[in-house]
Structures are given as C-alpha cells and as structure tokens.
Amino acid sequence: MRNVLLIMAAAACVASLAVSAFAADMTIKGEVVDIVCATSKKEAGKGAGHAACAMVCAKKGQPVGILTADAIYAVTGDYTANTNAKLLDFVAKNVIATGTVTEKDGIKSINVRSIKLAN
Fold first, then answer.
1. Is the pTM higher than 0.85?
2. Which residues partner with 112 through β-bridges?
3. I need a surface site. Which of 23, 60, 90, 115 has the fewest CB within 10 A?
4. Gap between the Cα atoms of 11 and 38, Å rounded
C-alpha cells in the first residue's frame, strides 16, 4: 500500500511539472491576423493589404491570432468575447501582448491579459 501511495504521489508531482512546462506567462510581439487567411494565403493573408478582409472575419467572430516571427498564437479568453470586440482596434496592426501561453497538439495560444500597439 505504501508503494502505491508513493507511486501516486510521484505521478502527481510529474503531472504538475508537465502542466507548468506547457503554460507560461509571456509577452509576444506580432501582427493581429485572421488565422485562416494567415495560414492559407501566406503573405497575402497579412499586412495592410489584407486589413479589410481580416477586419470582416474578426467582426464575424472568426479565430484571431498574433503572427510572430516564428508562430501564430491563437488569441483566447476575454479578448475574443463578443466576436472579438476588444481586438478590433488591433486587427492588421503590430502589437505587444502579454498573457498565458499554452501549446496543445502543436497549436500555440495566448490568453491575453493586456495588449497595446507596438512602436
């Protein structure tokens, strides 16, 4: 019985470490994009030339992300409520966002706590 409890305690410890390894508070810098267009249209799915389309998609509640130099972080949490209402001022603009970053099945996301325009 003692061995079973010891194994269970060790497993709980490992599990808590694994969760913290995949969730971290971070600040990221990148462009707010419509995820579908940014991934399917590549260069044509971002930037000022795509701003009007990205805005239409964001207003419809389509998934919005922050495109950094190395990944797209899907935005989650309060900023996506009411069809992305808090993100609309930032669509197709470069931002600095702070929040909890997680990764599941190769998809990165950020639960944004604060966001501002980048200089």
1. no
2. 99
3. 60
4. 40
Q: CA–CA separation, 60 vs 52, rounded Å? A: 13
Over the stretch 13-64, which tens digit does the pLDDT of each residue have?
A: 444 444 444 688 999 999 999 999 888 888 878 888 889 999 999 999 999 9
101 contacts 24 by C-beta, under 8 angstroms? yes
Residues 43, 65: Cα–Cα separation, whole Å: 15
Distance CA 104, CA 68 (A): 18
CA 76, distance to chain mean position in Å, is 6
How crowded is the C-beta side of 111, counted as CA atoms within 13 Å?
Answer: 8
| CATH number, domain 24-117 | 2.40.50
Looking at residue 13, its amino acid is: C
What are the E-state strand segments in the chain?
Answer: 23-34, 64-67, 72-76, 94-104, 107-117
